[in-house]
Each structure stands twice: as structure tokens, then as C-alpha cells.
Write a structure and sequence with these properties.
This protein is α/β, with parallel strands linked by helices. It has a single domain, classed as Rossmann fold (3-Layer(aba) Sandwich), CATH 3.40.50. The chain is 23% helix and 25% strand. The strands form three sheets. Strands 4, 5, 6, 7, 8 and 9 form a six-stranded mixed beta sheet that branches. A hairpin with a 2-residue loop joins strand 6 and strand 7. Helix 4 packs across helix 5. The two termini are 26 Å apart. The relative contact order is 0.22.
Length: 205
């Protein structure tokens, strides 16, 4: 199990506008993978971009998850399956096992598989191929949206919501974002679909 240090965020200076949305200036449209907890706004953002709104699922513990056929269609939204201490299979944060655990499971970052570094001229640069946007609204705002959505009865994951559950979900995604960033993958955060992209910084910077 790996413990990650706390981090802060700051707006990126180098940005570009793609279909009315602000993105980091160094990325391309077809690199984008949008992820985040339920209700974060992934589908809304993908529809605005005209991307693939059908949700993909990526188990981060699987060998060569980065070569999954579902990731060939981009930009798209994805749900992530995370490894947790004491759980053999990966869990999505809407899985019953995660939601009903006696104590919130601790993410086991060392079990996350990482794409290999590019070693040869003709080999695929998997770490460059994707850019992960972690869409992480503030927990109170996300709770408000999901409670409103629950009235429509369209998403079973919105039933019986509590603020502490959403806070825990956001924390898991923050841990994963930092770990992937520290491992050399392209990662940035955003708090809302209309907000500017945020880079990860450390308190001492």
C-alpha cells in the first residue's frame, strides 16, 4: 500500500479552447479520457465535446488496461475500477461492496498497473497517448446535484446518499490522480465542467 502526500491545485497558465471548453494547451482533443465519481458531470462534458458518451470501464489492476479497445474511441468518459486493501477484485465506487463496507476501504495504489515507458523509436508511447481529466466538484455541490437527480429515479447510485460517502469517493479519485501524475502520466483536474483546468502542485512549491 502506498500513502500519497497531500497536494494542492492551481489554474494552468497555458490553455486552449476546444468546442467552448477550456483545456490544457499542450494536449490534443483525441487524447482525452474524462473520469470522476458518479454525478460529477462526465456525460455532460462529453456531450458538449461531441465525444463518446457511452461509459467505458477500466480496471486499473489489469495488465495492459491501456491497450483496451474501448480506449481507442476518444474523447470519452470512463469509470475506474480501483484496488483496495482487503479486496481481491477491483471495485468501482458505485459497487455494493465499496458502498456497504463497514469501514471505507483504503486504496492500494501499488496494485495499479502502469503503462510502460517508451523505449524504442517505433514502440507506442502509451504514457503520451492518454490525458486523464479528473472531474472532481466540491463534495457539497456534488451531493446537491445527485440528490436532485435522485428525484428522477434514473440512477440507482443516488439512493441513500450522504455527504461523507461523496467525500470518500472524491478522496479516492484524488489519490489515484496524484499517483498517476507522480508515475509520469498526463493528469489534470477540474472542479466543474465550466471551470478552468487545474494542475497538481505541492505545498512546498
Amino acid at each position: 500500500m502506498t500513502i500519497t502526500m497531500p497536494f494542492e491545485t492551481a489554474p494552468l497558465d497555458d490553455v486552449q479552447i476546444i468546442k467552448g471548453v477550456t483545456f490544457p494547451g499542450h494536449i490534443t482533443f483525441r487524447q482525452l479520457l474524462i473520469t470522476g465519481p458518479p454525478g460529477a458531470g462526465k456525460s455532460s462534458l462529453i456531450r458538449k465535446l461531441g465525444g463518446w458518451s457511452e461509459e467505458g470501464y477500466i480496471d486499473l489492476t489489469l495488465n495492459k488496461w491501456w491497450a483496451a479497445q474501448s480506449l481507442s474511441l476518444r474523447p470519452r468518459e470512463i469509470h475506474l475500477g480501483f484496488p483496495f486493501v482487503g479486496f481481491e477484485p477491483s471495485l468501482a465506487l458505485f459497487d455494493k461492496e465499496w458502498l456497504e463496507a463497514d469501514a471505507r476501504p483504503v486504496i492500494d495504489l501499488e496494485r495499479i498497473r502502469l503503462p510502460p515507458e517508451k523505449r524504442f523509436f517505433f514502440s507506442v508511447n502509451w504514457r503520451w497517448r492518454y490525458v486523464f481529466e479528473f472531474l472532481l466538484p466540491p463534495a457539497p455541490l456534488l451531493l446537491e446535484r445527485r440528490l436532485e437527480r435522485s428525484k428522477r429515479g434514473t440512477h440507482h447510485v443516488d439512493v441513500g446518499l450522504e455527504l461523507k460517502t461523496i467525500e470518500s469517493q472524491i478522496q479516492v479519485y484524488r489519490h489515484a490522480a496524484l499517483y498517476l501524475h507522480q508515475s509520469g502520466l498526463n493528469v489534470y483536474l477540474r472542479e466543474d465542467t465550466d471551470d478552468v483546468p487545474l494542475q497538481i502542485i505541492y505545498p512546498e512549491q
